[in-house]
């Protein structure tokens, strides 16, 4: 997404796009619910358009908002369990702080060292102040040889 003009070539105002994306992410609304809400306000927006907005802008919103979220405590625990997702058994790894807030999670079809390392890398990168950046970058470098799809 372009930093200077993230809403370039869009037919709707940026405020409308961000409002739809925010409502979808924050509340348990479907795309069709949002289509109906916008229609009540005089805007004809198709549910597939809202879906595309969410897919396009949600990762950038998360990247920009995550540093401003409430910081976690210094103590957090890791939980692992085996659950069924869409009729398929998966391993669920979770990092939970001392207040019970879920910091990060990972679903993996396998229970092995690669999955655990991938989860810990994800958890360490997502929680600011949990590990010095030198350790995170060393872990990331070591994981590239084991898991080729690890990105910066």
From TrEMBL:
It comes from the Bacteria. Residues 74-132 form the DDE domain. GO terms for molecular function: DNA binding. InterPro entries: DDE_dom (IPR032874), IS_Transposase (IPR052183), Transpos_IS6 (IPR047930). The keyword Zinc does not apply. Keywords: DNA recombination, DNA-binding, Transposition. One of its GO terms (biological process) is DNA recombination. This is IS6 family transposase. It comes from Reticulibacter mediterranei. The lineage of its organism: Bacteria, Bacillati, Chloroflexota, Ktedonobacteria, Ktedonobacterales.
């Amino acid at each position: 997404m372009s930093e200077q003009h993230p809403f370039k070539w869009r037919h709707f105002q940026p405020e409308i796009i961000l409002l739809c994306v925010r409502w979808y992410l924050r509340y348990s609304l479907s795309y069709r619910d949002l289509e109906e809400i916008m229609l009540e306000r005089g805007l004809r927006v198709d549910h597939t358009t809202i879906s595309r907005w969410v897919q396009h802008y949600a990762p950038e919103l998360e990247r920009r908002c995550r540093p401003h979220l409430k910081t976690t405590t210094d103590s957090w625990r890791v939980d692992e369990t085996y659950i069924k997702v869409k009729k398929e058994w998966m391993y669920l790894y979770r990092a939970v702080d001392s207040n019970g807030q879920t910091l990060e999670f990972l679903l993996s079809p396998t229970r092995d060292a690669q999955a655990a390392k991938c989860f810990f890398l994800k958890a360490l990168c997502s929680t600011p102040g949990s590990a010095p950046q030198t350790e995170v970058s060393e872990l990331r470098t070591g994981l590239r040889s084991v898991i080729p799809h690890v990105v910066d």
